[in-house]
Amino acid sequence: MPVTFLFLLPVFFFQMTKSVTNPEELGGLASQMTNDYGHLALQGRMAAATAEPEEIGFQIRTRVQELGHGCIFLVQKAGALQICPTDSYTKRELIECARAVTEKVSLVLSALQAGNKGTQACITAASAVSGIIADLDTTIMFATAGTLNAENNESFADHR
């Protein structure tokens, strides 16, 4: 997942709102956001297709689409502000669109995290199993070296 877009969006928000005073910068920011969203949409489609359960995939797909709509409105407001840089109403609308996009990004992130719970559980289980294997290896090493005290006269080789 292109986390670049998701985690840099607050920077875009700041730059968009800051660019209200320099509307000539908005075109480059809008272009960059459009390219980044295109990558996110592609990755989001793949994440939605592989998500379990199916409703998580639906959430990812829906939230990425809603984010796309928000980005469209944001780019439109940026264009409108470039046409009329002194319009205070358009400036306020641009700032509101940027806030809405930031909110939609957090919804996309929460959907992705919900789809990632199974993966995280597997990572946690694998880590626990690795710890148990390391403990067993250490015990075997000490038992083989004969440094563990036997409770009776049996050897480790008998139980190995």
Descriptors:
single chain, 160 residues, mainly alpha, A middle domain of Talin 1, 6 helices, elongated
Explain how this protein is built.
The chain has helices at 3-18, 26-50, 54-83, 88-115, 117-145, 156-159. The chain has 160 residues and is mostly helical. The longest helix is centred in the middle third of the chain and has 30 residues, at 54-83. The protein has one domain (3-116): Talin, central domain (A middle domain of Talin 1, Up-down Bundle), CATH 1.20.1420. It is 82% helix and 0% strand. The chain is built from six helices and no strands.
Summarize the structure.
The protein has 160 residues and is mainly α. The chain contains 6 helices and no strands.
Strand content: under 5%
Overall 3D form? elongated
Structural class: mainly alpha
Over the alpha carbons, how many angstroms does the gyration radius reach? 27 Å
For this structure, the CATH topology is: A middle domain of Talin 1
Count the domains. 1
- By DSSP (H or I, 4+ residues per run), the number of helices equals 6
Q: Report the helical percentage.
A: over 70%
Task: Please tally the β strands and state the result.
Answer: 0
Which consecutive residue ranges, at least 5 long each, have pLDDT under 50? none
Order of helices and strands: HHHHHH
Overall pLDDT:
76
Subcellular location: Cytoplasm
GO molecular function: actin filament binding; integrin binding
Organism: Prunella himalayana
Main location: cytoplasm
